[in-house]
Amino acid sequence: MMNRFNHLPTLKIDTSDKIPFTYKGKTYYGTKGDTIATALYANGVRIYARSLKYHRPRGLYSMDGECSNTMMEVNGIPNVRTETTFLKPGMVVKEQNVKGSAENDFLGFIDKMDWAMPAGFYYDTMHKPAKIWPVAMKQIRKAAGIGKLSPDHHMPGKYDEIFPTCDVCVIGGGPAGMTAALAAAQKGLRVILMEARPWLGGHFEYRTSEYIDRQTHHERAVQLAKEVEKTENIRLFTHTANVGAYNNNLITGFQIGKESDVFTERYIEIRANSVVVATGCIERPLLFENNERPGVMQAGCALRLANTYGMLPGKTAVFSIGHDLGLETAVSLHDLGMSVPVIADIREDGQDPALLKAVLDRKITILKGWVATEAHGGKQVKKVTVKSVDATVSKTYDCDVLVASAGFTPLTGPLVVNQAKLTYDNHTNFFLPTDLPKKMYAAGRLLGFENAKSIEASGHLAGLKAAYGCENCSIADLGEAKKAMENLPGPARGTKLVTAPVKGRKTFICFDEDTSIKNIKQSIDKGFDVPELIKRFSGAGLGPGQGGIPGHNLPLFTAKYQALPDIKIRPTTVRPPLVPTLIATYAGTNHTMFKRTPMDEMQRKDGGIFRNIGVWQRARYFSKDFTCKAEIENVRNNVGMLDGSTLGKFRIHGPDALNALQRVYVSDLSKIKEGRVKYTAMCNDDGCVIDDGVVVKLGENDYYFSTSTGRAGQTIEWIRYHTRYDNWNFALVNLTDAMGVINLSGPNARKVLEKVVDIDVSNEGFGFSEYKEFTIADTIPVKAMRLGFVGELSYELHVPASYMKTLWLMLNEAGKEFKIQNFGVEAQNVLRMEKCHVILGQESEQRTNLLDIGMGFLWSRKKTGYKTVGVAALAQAENDNTRLKLVGLKMENNGRAPKDGALIVDDRVRGHVCTARNSFSLNEAVGMALVEGDMSKIGTRLAFYEDECKGELIYGTVVETPFYDPEGKRMKM
Amino acid sequence: MALTITCPICGKRNGYEFRYGGEEKGPRPDEKDLTPESWCDYVHMNKCVAGVQQEWWFHRDGCGSWFTIFRDTTTNLEKETPEAKE
């Protein structure tokens, strides 16, 4: 393992802390602060992966994850960008897309087969004969894969999400981003600053060169970072990549958690008033033969390997660069002990004089107007040929590292995904945003500034513009900031595209998809002459790096190859996610949320088996006998108790309360008497029945009503929607969670209730369909209704949720001698089915109207003037005999009940079973079904087709309803 | 969801909090002389404007009120005032 520096101020590693990890089955040691890729590099690994198509060896290139070169399988997760993923103890790292190893890949020979695979090779060759497709596809998939995920892979870690808001969101924590954040924060605004790397500082952070007055760039970065960190109204998110930007300034990203964080990754969605984009630049790759050979790397990568991770990239480095950061890197690496035989600078002039002097002081040869044309060496760089740009003179140098970087590429992603347009700028050679989105501002290096002061000043100005966007900055302040900019150097001149004068067979414009210059030429020659088409035909930019490598070069090269006088060609469209994001991060935490009724705990103690029903969890059974025989028989013979707290419960009062009810309920509610319960239903505008429940008149203009469990959430919205033009005066309160409901049912129900209450509960004192209010023990206020959903003598007791437990215990105690038992939702379902009482959603579906389920009697045809929702459609549907009808059914020859949802068929589908059960009360199988009108006559034979019945139908007959106690004596007794 | 909606009571909020209630079509028609066709038109026919339209929203996760806004359906941005169709 190589010796690591430990004296540099810029280091982010702790050399005293060794971290073990496994690579190819062997244990290696990295250093605290290493990424996986730098730890491997320190252990001598140079070939990280093989390329997608040609299986070419690939190495560390950019350090910011713009290409798939260093993607590996880590802890079973494929395609991990090891250059940006930090090393953790015990990580298991494997190569991917290799046969053998990355070092010796048996498929490496494919590299020599490139002549057989020109651009568009799949489209051209793979259509005939069609028969070979399945075979060919399998083989191609095997050879060209990037990582495999095991089908039973379980994603480890905790994933979270937050949705913060702020006045100003700054994307990018470099010098421009930090000054922008500080400028906005000083105006008193709430600022969010997000930075993709784990620390602030951007390209200042890792540079030891002079910023101003002997202060280094690194020291300046630290100074700014400290200021940011101590500013209370800046909320800082480091290690947070920006993923998307949308209109109304919605900014999305994800944060990678530190060891101390409770999350592995978390999704962040920021709603900002103004946004500053200060994402800076990445480097534009230099195009030459074998430009992705391991050993070739960008300047920033080489410099950060040394300054951030404390190791030299190699022994001898040749430079072929086009910007001052390249010169600075050469000087820095030389001073750290690397041999730098030559710098080929694409630029004829324009270098920073101080840097030039530093280079010459160190006796490094600098060739201005020269460029690398070919890297030599089988698996790693051993030699490099450099030529003058006009290709007249050529030299060859031995080296083990080739630092190659053509220029800079602005990271305009957040602007572009938010609909900014890009235009080519001749001075910077950048595609720069024009027509910035509303309240979105750009700053810093991405605008072409290279001077440190200018970068900061542009950040300051953008911060003030953002504050101005929040109406928090004066025009005078803005003017001052603009003036300050004028006295500083403007955007720097960028390097034009220079390509080595070679055929470009192995000059790769896109590493991920192995797209060479030759492939681009082939595409253009075939007529695919704009980047968007070339991209799709040749694959350039379609890989995991999403255009990070070819994004800038492709339009430049396209324009150059076609000799366009003016670059009007636009780069390919950038789309979110700007950075690959784990599905687990989007999924976030477990979203299984449900409500518990006040009786939840007690019912669980009693052995309740719970199921999710709508937003609630309810006790469905109280034994493992899912037919619920005991529960059902106890209700029929003794008395049972059901937790009905999930019922929707509402109070409506005010001068127009009745009007509002008349609008949504099909019955005429003006006739309800106080003390009586009215059962009624709501329809939608198509007459389809959506809800049923009871309405009670509490007093003048004061009503209490219940809805079904599923509709409770929408009822207020529904009533207000349908009365939104009327300006009616009523107040509507949702009491669903405030009130609990106990349903006491069975022939002994009265005897139980009698023992608990003071009022007269005899059939004369409290008759069927009556409503009473009373208190129990002078304390518990009860709204009681006599209903008969399950077909027995039954009381529905509505009490405040906080008293539910008490009342439950009281009834249990009082009911002991009458054999009181819990019953669950399934028992209730069978009990009411025997009575043919419908449950909406079970006996109805979306298209079922009130008449179809035989509840037309609820509709008051005389009620006019209320514009009741649904009645116009009902009036029309009344004469329609093609609709499905709800019927009762009985199985033939004492057969078993069909499954719920079974189809009713003859030569086609004629209906379906809603609910059917083997009834213990009746000793036969009965149920309800929706069938076509002509099959609804009593005595019609029905054939049932069930899932997986293999053509074996079962049969039943349409019968009279209800099945149980047809006269309804039991519920009225 | 990038959409924001300005509730008359709660102010500008994330679109997540609201439920869409359809285009503004005016009050429910009178029951008198109502034909099935005109009723069906009122309930189901929409203009589907590519441009600014007035539409209903319900502040479901907020104050629970129904109100209308003007929204440009091509940009998904709210407009403060209705604009003439281009």
How would you characterize the overall build of this protein?
The complex is a heterodimer of chains A (973) and B (86). Chain A is an alpha+beta fold and 973 residues long. Among the domains of chain A are: 14-117, Roll (Ubiquitin-like (UB roll)), CATH 3.10.20; 288-405, FAD/NAD(P)-binding domain (3-Layer(bba) Sandwich), CATH 3.50.50.60; 508-571; 595-645 and 738-832, 2-Layer Sandwich (Gyrase A, domain 2); 648-734, 2-Layer Sandwich (Alpha-Beta Plaits), CATH 3.30.70; 881-967, Aminomethyltransferase beta-barrel domains (Elongation Factor Tu (Ef-tu), domain 3). Chain A is built from 24 helices and 51 strands. In chain A, helix 4 packs parallel to helix 5 (217-230), helix 17 (629-637) crosses helix 22 and helix 20 crosses helix 21. The radius of gyration of chain A is 38 Å and the shape is elongated. Chain B is mainly β. Chain B has one helix spanning 36-44, and strands spanning 4-7, 11-14, 19-23, 52-58, 66-72, 77-79. Chain B has one domain (4-79): Folate-binding fold, CATH 3.30.2270.10. Chain B is globular, with a radius of gyration of 15 Å. Classes of the chains: A alpha+beta (973), B mainly beta (86). Chain A binds chain B through residues 163, 246-248, 250, 271, 685-686, 716-717, 720-722, 724-726, 864-865, 867, 871-873, 876, and chain B through 1-4, 14, 19, 21, 26-31, 34, 36, 39, 43, 56, 58, 60, 64-66, 75-77.
Assembly form of the protein: heterodimer
Summed up, the helix count of chain A is: 24
Q: The biggest beta sheet of chain B, please? A: 4 strands, antiparallel
Q: What is Rg of chain B?
A: 15 Å
Give the N-to-C terminal Cα separation of chain B: 27 Å
GO molecular function (chain B): sarcosine oxidase activity
Pfam families (chain B): SoxD (PF04267)
Protein name (chain B): Sarcosine oxidase subunit delta, SoxD
Organism (chain B): Desulfotignum phosphitoxidans DSM 13687
